[in-house]
Design brief:
126 residues; four-stranded antiparallel beta sheet
Length: 126
């Protein structure tokens, strides 16, 4: 069965760092574009970062560009998101998503992703 499992969330002070991991199974990871999204209470889920199937192309939301890095190792069925210089506004539940096909221009659209994890909570204190 398909599984997408995030881990690594927690409580961190502003300016700190966290690495979120996304372990997948039940599908061929290298056929899939991967995205990270986040949702804070009372807010809509928003795009954070995406990575192409071969890991060559990476795209980020303006709010995290320069602070977050998305990476993947298809042989290990693993994707991760390195988050540095964290801010209170980064507080949210973070979701890993996989969508078949190329990165293209639809990477910010939730509907293009087929599989979603349950998310992991990141809380950044002020």
């Amino acid at each position: 069965q398909v599984q997408v499992v995030e881990s690594g969330g927690g409580l961190v002070q502003h300016g700190g760092s966290l690495t979120l991991s996304c372990v997948t199974s039940g599908f061929t990871l290298d056929y899939h574009t991967i995205g990270w999204f986040r949702q804070a209470p009372g807010k809509e889920r928003e795009f954070v970062a995406a990575i192409s199937r071969n890991g060559v192309v990476r795209n980020y939301a303006d709010s995290v560009k320069g602070r977050f890095t998305i990476s993947r190792d298809n042989a290990k069925n693993l994707v991760w998101l390195q988050m540095n210089s964290l801010k209170p506004e980064d507080t949210a539940r973070y979701f890993c998503a996989a969508g078949s096909g190329a990165l293209g221009t639809t990477y910010m659209m939730q509907a293009r992703y087929d599989y979603w994890g349950q998310g992991t909570q990141v809380t950044v204190s002020s």
